Amino acid sequence: MDLTTQLRSLYAPGVAATIEVPETTIPAMVEEVAGRYPQRAAIDFFSRQMTYAELVVQMRKAAGALAAAGVRPGDRVALVMPNCPQHAVAVLGAMALGAVVVEHNPLAPAAELRGEYEAHGARTTIAWTKSLEKLSFLDPGHTVFAMDLIRALPRASQFLVRLPLRAARERREQLAARVPAWARRWDQEVARAEAWQGACPAASGDIALLIHTGGTTGVPKAAALTHRNLIANVEQSIDWVPVLHEGAEVFYCVLPLFHAFGFTIGFLAGLRMGATIAMFPKFDQAMILTSQKRLPCTFFLGVPPMYQRLLATAKQMGSDLSSIHFSLSGAMPLSRELADAWEEATGGLMIEGYGMTEASPIILGSPLASTRARGALGIAYPSTEVRIVDPEDPSRDVADGEVGELLARGPQVFPGYWNQPEETEACFVDGWLRTGDLVRLRDGFIYMADRRKEMINSSGFNVYPSQVEEAVRTMPGVRDVAIVGIPSSSSGEDVVAAIVLEAGASATLADIREWAEKSIAHYALPRQLVVMSELPRSQLGKVMRKKVREQITGMTGGAIQAAKGAVEGARGAVEGARDAVGEAARGAARGATDALRRITSPEDRQQRGQQRD
């Protein structure tokens, strides 16, 4: 019996071993669902709702606005915005034209955005007004639409935020910025556009989406996902959870759409199910639990730190979570204690999923049955084949219980990276996707053994040591640096900077973070700092990160405190607590409180002083 057949023996009742993937496109899928549930609310944003019929109208008007701007099939349309109704409409409108959507993190530094733009070559951008200042590198021939988040709010909220009061002004500055003369106003362009009347010219096998990832080698690149890839993973996920009811669910879309987990499961699967999708521009416990009173959630998608913080805040607020019948956790290990506590609070079921952007993203999942195993990555999704092989000889499958690299293939696996054939070739072997993760089979389930690569998994985000090292190394006074991941009970792994200073120089964790955030994403900033006299190197002069990690973890408690500095360690814990699933606040000194430019709420500083996300 091969591994895939063995894993399928543990499927929950009603889950098929294989599925049929509709040969359709995402816009066609949405129109088909709208035909069945035209008056059902499709999108909810702080109580302002858009029905499925209205969503289709907005999709076609957005397509009309983009077509008038010169967008054609196959063109890339870059999106730089948080989760909001305009984001949903922009995605569907671009895809309706047969264009390729390119997702970007709206909080990414300008240097990161510039590199991504140089790689994908989009000539049209739809961006949140608060992100426009970071796009000044775009040339004059680039078409830029500015999206005003205030316009997505309910009418009463729009009125209040525009009052000539100090509090209203501060709130307004958090939500929006002035639109420069070189940008068009997206909301106005869509409102007056002629609705696009044509059918989507794309085929199911055409590229629909580019999502940026470090991939299996750690080199930043854009994973190209087809309509069929995305729809396949949606259908696999729906089949995996037969307890969901079409036309009756409420999905909470908290994970950002620039993350494949949020895009495919939180957004597309919700649309496919005819669910009402409550969109949140950032993760904020109070915001989510307030919405829970008004529009009770039935399906929640998140990562372990989210669940942990929601439980704590729900207890403080006395919130009722019993409407949440099903929850899916991914991106990092889920502890048995947290899963049990969540199921006790909701009365629902919680399972884990494992995947990667290159697989749209889910490959494995825990079965929705009593046979599920806490802490396991899970078993193969329907129509998904997996192998565990010798990393040095992928043609050889390892024995049960032996550690090997996980390979996968199925309809959700991408065709390759955008314009990077060498990177694409490196991540496939004989048609199988090399995940780069080392796993083992135990009691019928696949478990993570270790990461083959030195990538750090911090709060569900991939952090690549070389990128962080490059950012820190340019800081005056820093002679040498190594970045490693140290296990953390709350964030998976903490990013730790081990530095060697020039003679007479000094540096604190706050100094390092302030310097590095100019060029790397906030979630990649070091959360701990260790000053060393020298870094261990190989005979070839290469820093041995494994030795660095061993030295740090081998320190006594007192040595660690001496190395980090008690004061700076505490400050780092507070700052690290603001890191996002979708990214976090930019510096406590800037007084960020409830800004929608954050993906994670700053309130967690009060709740997690010793428990960092």
First-residue to last-residue Cα separation: 42 Å
Instruction: State the CATH topology of the domain at 45-203.
Output: Rossmann fold
Query: What is the structural class?
Result: alpha/beta
Oligomer: single chain
Q: Percent of residues in beta strands?
A: 15-25%
Summarize model confidence as the mean pLDDT.
86
Describe this structure in words.
The chain has a nine-stranded mixed sheet with strand order 2-1-11-10-12-13-14-15-16, with helices on both faces. It has an eight-stranded mixed sheet with strand order 7-6-5-3-4-8-9-20, sandwiched between helices. Helices cover 32% and strands 23% of the residues. The protein contains 20 helices and 28 strands. Helix 9 (227-240) crosses helix 10 and helix 12 packs across helix 13 (336-346). The protein is globular, with a radius of gyration of 23 Å. Among the domains are: 45-203, Rossmann fold (3-Layer(aba) Sandwich); 450-553, GMP Synthetase, Chain A, domain 3, CATH 3.30.300.30. It is an alpha/beta fold.
Question: How would the blueprint of this fold be written?
Answer:
Blueprint: H1 3-8, H2 26-36, E1 41-45, E2 48-51, H3 52-68, E3 76-80, H4 85-96, E4 100-104, H5 110-120, E5 124-128, E6 143-147, H6 155-161, H7 166-175, E7 184-185, H8 186-192, E8 207-213, E9 221-226, H9 227-240, E10 250-253, H10 260-272, E11 276-279, H11 285-294, E12 299-302, H12 304-317, E13 326-329, H13 336-346, E14 349-355, E15 362-365, E16 379-380, E17 385-390, E18 393-397, E19 404-409, E20 416-417, H14 421-426, E21 428-429, E22 432-442, E23 445-451, E24 456-458, E25 461-463, H15 465-473, E26 478-488, E27 492-501, H16 509-516, E28 528-531, H17 545-553, H18 557-564, H19 566-576, H20 604-607
Parallel strand pairs: 1-11, 3-4, 3-5, 4-8, 5-6, 6-7, 10-11, 10-12, 12-13, 13-14, 27-28
Antiparallel strand pairs: 1-2, 8-9, 9-20, 14-15, 15-16, 17-18, 17-19, 19-22, 21-22, 22-23, 24-25, 26-27
Helix pairs in contact: 2-3, 3-4, 3-8, 9-10, 11-12, 12-13
